């Protein structure tokens, strides 16, 4: 049995109709899914951009905070050194140093001359001009 052109055309029409009924709805669903995926991808790209911007801002803020912490740590170290010096000075004052003991043995005139010489030396270092005192005889 051989098929005529009309038979082939009819069969082709039936197959095309069947394909359209089966395949086209699937393609439509796939297209709808692709549209949703594209929208989701755009949303994710937008969100990723926002998160990147926020992360960059936080990174900059963290850098500033770290710099401030470093500055504060430096200042704390200086304060610790100063406190240690002060404790040392207090300890020396409480126990008296050798210089203090020698100074205590001097006469009042020697003590005053020593103090005056120290004041003059300190004033010179600080570039301070002391008032002239009249000499008492």
3D architecture notes:
- This protein is mostly helical and 137 residues long.
- It is built from 3 helices and no strands.
- The radius of gyration is 48 Å and the shape is rod-shaped.
- The mean pLDDT is 87.
The coarse silhouette is rod-shaped
The percent of residues in helical segments reads over 70%
Q: Tell me the span between the first and last alpha carbons.
A: 157 Å
What portion of the residues fall into strands of 2 or more residues?
Answer: under 5%
Biggest beta sheet summary = none
Characteristic key phrases:
3 helices, 137 residues, rod-shaped, mainly alpha
Please sum up the structure shown.
The chain is mostly helical and 137 residues long. Helices cover 85% and strands 0% of the residues.
Which helices and strands occur, and which strands form pairs?
Layout: H1 5-95, H2 98-105, H3 108-125
């Amino acid at each position: 049995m051989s098929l005529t052109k009309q038979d082939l055309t009819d069969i082709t029409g039936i197959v095309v109709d069947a394909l359209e009924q089966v395949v086209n709805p699937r393609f439509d669903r796939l297209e709808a899914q692709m549209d949703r995926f594209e929208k989701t991808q755009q949303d994710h790209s937008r969100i990723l951009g926002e998160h990147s911007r926020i992360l960059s801002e936080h990174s900059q803020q963290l850098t500033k905070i770290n710099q401030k912490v470093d500055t504060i740590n430096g200042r704390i170290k200086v304060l610790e050194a100063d406190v240690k010096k002060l404790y040392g000075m207090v300890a020396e004052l409480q126990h008296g140093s050798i210089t203090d003991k020698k100074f205590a043995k001097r006469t009042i005139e020697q003590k005053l001359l020593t103090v005056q010489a120290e004041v003059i030396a300190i004033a010179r270092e600080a570039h301070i001009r002391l008032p002239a005192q009249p000499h008492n005889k």
